[in-house]
Amino acid sequence: MLSFLGKRLLQLVPTLFFVSVIIFLLQHLLPGDPALVMAGEEKDPQVIEEVRRQYHLDQPIPIQYVYWVSGVLRGDLGESLRIKQPVLDLVLQKLPVTIQLATMAMAIALVIGVAAGVVAAVKKDSAWDYAANAFALWGISTPNFWLGIMLIFLFSVRLGWLPASGYVPLSEDWRASLAATIMPAFVLGNAIAAILMRHTRSAMLSVLESDYVRTARAKGLPERTVILKHAMRNALTPVITLGALELGTLLSGAVLTEQIFSIPGFGKLIVDAVFNRDYAVVQGVVLVTATIYIVLNLLADIAYVLVNPRLRT
Predict the structure, then answer these.
(1) pTM of the model
(2) Nearest C-alpha neighbor of 251 from the set 217, 291, 214
(3) Which domains does the chain have, with CATH numbers?
(4) From residue 248, how far is each of 84, 134, 171, 184, 217 by CA, in Å?
(5) What is the radius of gyration, based on Cα positions, of the chain?
(6) 285-to-110, 261, 290 alpha-carbon distances in Å
């Protein structure tokens, strides 16, 4: 296990290097000149030249990359061109909001999707199976923005049970925080639950037809033990893969949902940065997002080994 983990950690170094190069080069393809943005409306040539020297924009691209990477390794992701605030501070402000929202959405998706998939596979061709497939079709087909608006209309406007928008940190009032994030979390978790249900059902159907499941049943084991301990555990591998990818997508920012519910998360931060041509923020947020994806894939590989003993060899 330690050898496997060490190899995977070593693979992260070249991966992060190539990701940083791609992020830096793609950033230079965006239209506009950051020096002109920082120079203000007057566009004084002397000010523009000073800005170029200060931010090393007058240097060749490889030298600019070295300056940027050396700052990243020190924990310095640069400074926002628009609000003159360190990018790392902005990330640390917005990331907890998105982590809370993503965690709640993923919990909803796992509880609904995995449970529905297992039941649909065990009760194949029954009313439970048809209901689970209908739910999956509805979840995949329903646009997030429409579902969000309908939930606001029902639970906020008509019933008055939940706030329509806004965000309250958990540290201030956990009840108000959960009330403000439960609707956007359900909107995000709904679509993921539908996808997880389809994958779980497919994996369970395949596992339930395997020889070791038939052997477990022939030995007289209770059906619940056969399903939960033998079948479900081995069917979780594709679910773990999909869950890691979907969680990475949630942590990178759910733009539409955050906009509808006025959640000040990662998605809103990256959209504002792109529209304002805040290049340092774009680079920092994309780098953090890519790192999150890489770490989640590492955790998924570890989960494979823990869930499936055959992979330990």
Answers:
(1) 0.78
(2) 291
(3) 2-73 (no CATH), 97-275 (1.10.3720.10)
(4) 28, 27, 24, 17, 38
(5) 24
(6) 27, 21, 9
